[in-house]
Amino acid sequence: MSCPVPDVDLGRQLFDRLRDIGFDGRGMTRPSYGREENLAHALFMDTACGYGLEIRRDWASNLFLTLPGRDRNLPAVMTGSHVDTVPCGGNFDGAAGAVAGLLVLCSWVEAGFRPERDTTLIVIRAEESVWFPLSYLGSRTAFGLLDPSALDMPRSDDGVSLRQHMLECGAEPGLCGRAPVLDSAKIDCFVELHIEQGPVLPEAGVPIGIVTGICGSTRYRSIVIHGQYAHSGATPRRFRSDAVMAGASMMVALHDAWKKVEAAGEEMTLTFGVCQTDPGQANFAAVSGRLELVIDIRSRDEVLLERMNALVIEQARRVEADYHVQVDLGERTCSTPAVMDETLQVEARILAAAMGLPVISMPSGAGHDAATFAGQGVPTEMLFVRNANGSHNPDESMEMDDFMHGVRLLERLLRKRAGQLLPRTSAYGWG
């Protein structure tokens, strides 16, 4: 057996093809359970078929690509990520982890390496919850955690139900709650490579991050503040029921609370990603009678998330009284924080040191499917790859050299867990 060497040219080809599939004229749009996500999954199946990997899809159309191990009764090593995007996103969010896992398995086939245990890449459906209002939809289905009632959720762009979208891409939603699903006891570990979606690694000048934990969230996706439309010049302040001013007051109060949380040394983020009046009725000369907004609060501290949620409710009631409006918060959705496996973190740091590869430890402020695996008791780790310009925008900028350093570290970590002793080899260009 030769030492596996992941193929950078294959990686470039896959990213180029994913760009061709998802380009919307400005960025990448591959909607969850949509045509472009389906084409991306087909690309992975076609490539895996060429390397002789086992191909399987579960009832929800999550894709499993496996290199069989010598002992198929041993718990499997798993890696993977998603290939759907937010609207007008970048080409590397999620896709980098799926491509990395495929490069690892293909390099093992090329090198003639057969692991002791099954090693599986899962290309996960519907990670981006902008399309359906549920975090980690695909990985939840993989573990049997989806309530069948969720199948009636409409997709945000077309209003068509999750059930119908599943049927159109060959999934079998009628098996929800009845089909075989992943068993955490049969999974040795799950390792997800992902681009960093913030500025930490570029600022530190380091290519790879070893993730310590993943933030949970509390979200309100459909808040509506109902006021009263009125003439802007003829309505004194004491007579107004101004939805915009009520929303502004609520947002400022929550932002001030965030600053106090940070000053106390606690960790969280707060985002108002949508704030809009009704374009059909709001106008320059009217007090606005309706405001729509969303709230996204994230932290690794569940107690803090609950404390902030209580504050959201408190502020909604306050502005109702102060501004004579009605605040409809809508449904609250949540995800649970996840802690990464300490043993996997140590193993990753040791392997990186043997490669001469600089790394830092860091938390993930964004959510990832890895949190679902960790929540099911699977030893889980994430590897971040340096990426300029953030994420969830068309300007993601991951260098292929950084990506391949991450792939090589992933390959060694998976190979170690799959039961093969690692040879002592030289560094990858780092002094």
TrEMBL record:
Main enzyme class: hydrolase
UniProt-annotated binding residues for Zn(2+) 1: H82, D93, H194
Cofactors required: Zn(2+)
Positions with a binding annotation for allantoate: R219, N283, R298
Coiled-coil region(s): none
Family: Belongs to the peptidase M20 family.
Keyword Zinc recorded: yes
Cofactor note: Binds 2 Zn(2+) ions per subunit.
Molecular function in Gene Ontology: hydrolase activity, acting on carbon-nitrogen (but not peptide) bonds, in linear amidines; metal ion binding
Keywords: Hydrolase, Metal-binding, Zinc
Residues given in the record as Zn(2+) 2 binding sites: D93, E128, H392
Name of this protein: Hydantoinase/carbamoylase family amidase
Enzyme Commission designation: 3.5.-.-
UniProt key word Transcription regulation: no
Taxonomic classification: Bacteria, Pseudomonadati, Pseudomonadota, Alphaproteobacteria, Acetobacterales
